[in-house]
Amino acid sequence: MPCSTAPPKPPSIGAWLVCCLGLSQLIAWGAMHYLTAVFAQPITVEQGWSAAWVQGGFSLALLIMAASSSAVGRWIDAHGGRGAMMAGCWAGALGCALLASAQHLAVYYLSWVLLGLGMRLALYDAAFAALAVVGGPAAKRAMSQITLFGGFASTLFWPLGQALADAVGWRGALWVYALLLLLGSALHLAIPRHTHRSPVAGMVPVHAPSVPKVRSTAPADTWLYGLVAVLVLAMQTGVAAHFLALLVGLGWDTKTAVSLSMLLGVGQFCGRAWVVAWGHRIDAIRLNLLPCTLLAGAYAMALLIGTSLAGAGAFAFLYGAGNGIATITRGAMPLLLFDTAHYGRIVGAILRPAFVLAAAAPVAVALALQRLGHAGTLGLGLAICAVLLAAPVALVLRHPPPTARRTIP
Questions:
Q1: Global pTM?
Q2: What band does 188 get if pLDDT is binned at 50, 70 and 90?
Q3: How many CB atoms within 10 Å of residue 175?
Q4: Is domain 219-400 given the CATH code 3.40.630.30 in the classification?
């Protein structure tokens, strides 16, 4: 006879957890991912290394993220995100401290090994997996909410890092970053300690509401989602490294290009805010059509009217909006495509080649600018967006909305 006692209610994703994870993303992105944007030049000047060797540290970190991606995903699936994300902040803090004391290139690269591990354990993809463990398919809106915090990382940490470097030097600034990461690790205590557990056989409550069957992982879904993740991550990393150069190539001076680039952050915030306020009503598979379309529209604007102020501004804003929403859909689509109990393992394995290509993307864009010129590079970006848009279209056709499914015999 089945037991009528309901199993313990799984933990919910409340405002406190969202705020704590959001703040941790703000610190982790600012203190690790955007580190080179502020300190690459003073490191190059003081150490006497070439800019390529200095920037190579970040590429190495992305390769470490690729190598550790599957293992991190399995860890979070098995034990939840609390320990993993705290460890990420600790690894990042140790990496910053080691970088602050680096006098030789070998120590510099060892620092980036730790920072790469820290980023994989503490940035969005780990946070998304942690939320999937807590909330399952209901985690989509929380994913979009924490990206609002992370979107301010460059806005806050670029001037903060510059002010610290001016006051105490880049080495002193990195010690402050290490301290911030250590303090930020405590924010992950808000993540529930235990993961979801399936009810024991024979203990399903009599009046329990029906739950949807777990979706089996189809190879076509894996490949299509993987294509989206790989292209978006590679584009984000490659274009971010050369965004100002692309604007200058459109005919704008450096000062104007810097001003126009601020619209990228505005667009990113507006796109994510729209998802939080209204876009969460659209399932992630259909929602993913929007960022891919916005990215294609951004390149088209740059090619057609990028020499006008309105056209260049539209390029920056649309690219930022597409980039911001794509981060959310990359984390939310697996909630519908795959078994959420294995979210971390599946997504971690898929992101491995994405991180590898992201590491090579800045060099690839630099070569494209050299060989194809600015117009040719923008045209190449538009062609990539066409492929990028084809993948979510295929996913939408494979997964019609529930009302459409009921009309299919």
A1: 0.80
A2: very high
A3: 18
A4: no
